[in-house]
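[#protein-structures] MJ: dropping DUF2313 domain-containing protein here for a structure pass
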Amino acid sequence: MDRQIIDYLPYVLRDVVEYRQLMEAEQPELAALWAAQDKVLADQYIVTATEYGISRWEAILGIYPKDTDGLEMRRARILSMLQLKLPYTKRWLANWLNDLCGAGNYDLAITAYSIVIDLGYDLIPEAEKLAGDIYTMLAAVRPANMVLELNGMRNISGAANVAAITECALDMEVWPAQAELDSSGGVQITGYTEYVYTADAYPVA
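AK: finished. structure tokens for DUF2313 domain-containing protein:
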């Protein structure tokens, strides 16, 4: 609070010692009341809620945060839970994943009896925690006849060297050997080949 309540007194009273002491004693109380009012207004909306507001939403929705969860992770989990609705369409599921993971940070494939989601672990902040929340929430609302598969994808670059060497030799001799003829010789052919492969390793979620 940047306002000083002594400034609301008439100028003739501001220099009175008793009034100055009264204002100095009341100023911290009014500042605390002003800060509490700001928190009440912030807790009306999830995107601006404080620690107290987030904990109240978690109690209402039955969410139990982990000790290592930050405030933003808890906020995202609440928003995701409120956006869940049954039944949902493929377009709704894609929009829901866009809000959580960001567009282009996942792959979604739906077949007759399975929902497969591949998360880009290198692109999504705190992907390991988010993957567990996505699986838990979708498992609660997925159709009963469909299997939910959630994979974490992480790109790991490496090289695998494969070498091959081939040698071919040819010797020729002509008989009978004569002093004036030299008919022996040889040919050697050597080849070297190297191949490099890049493999994707899938971490265990």
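MJ: nice. The longest strand covers residues 162-172.
AK: one more thing. Strands lie at 106-110, 114-120, 147-153, 162-172, 185-195.
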